[in-house]
Automatic annotation (TrEMBL):
UniProt keyword terms in alphabetical order: Monooxygenase, Oxidoreductase
Oxidoreductase among keywords: yes
Species: Actinomadura fibrosa
Ranges for domain ABM: 1-63
Database matches in Pfam families: ABM
Protein name: Antibiotic biosynthesis monooxygenase
An example molecular function term from Gene Ontology annotations: monooxygenase activity
Length: 103
């Protein structure tokens, strides 16, 4: 498994639309890239955002990062982003989940 970390800020007044459009964007992302296992949109204390996506593999995460702009719902959602702080991928070395499944 791999985790994608995408930090960004949004345009003033865009928060409501960013959150409201999120389900359709994630649904389209998962249809195009089925290796996406989970997605968490978080807001940091400084007001910036961190999108955390869990992927079946790093290769799938990196492919999606290269091609995500070709998914119309994703491209439309990105219009809310004022500034990107970059995207990083990290490999999951060990994991624990509440349902008891270890990675």
């Amino acid at each position: 498994m791999a985790i994608e970390l995408a930090r960004f800020t949004i345009h003033d007044g865009a928060e409501e639309r960013l959150v409201a459009e999120r389900p359709a964007m994630v649904d389209a992302l998962r249809r195009r890239f089925p290796g996406c296992l989970a997605a968490y949109l978080t807001r940091e204390d400084d007001g910036s955002w961190l999108d955390v996506l869990v992927w079946r593999s790093r290769a799938e995460a990196e492919r999606a990062a290269r091609e995500v702009g070709s998914v119309p719902e994703c491209a439309a959602w990105f219009r809310h982003i004022a500034e990107s702080g970059g995207v990083r991928h990290v490999d999951v070395v060990a994991a624990w989940t509440a349902d008891g499944a270890d990675a």
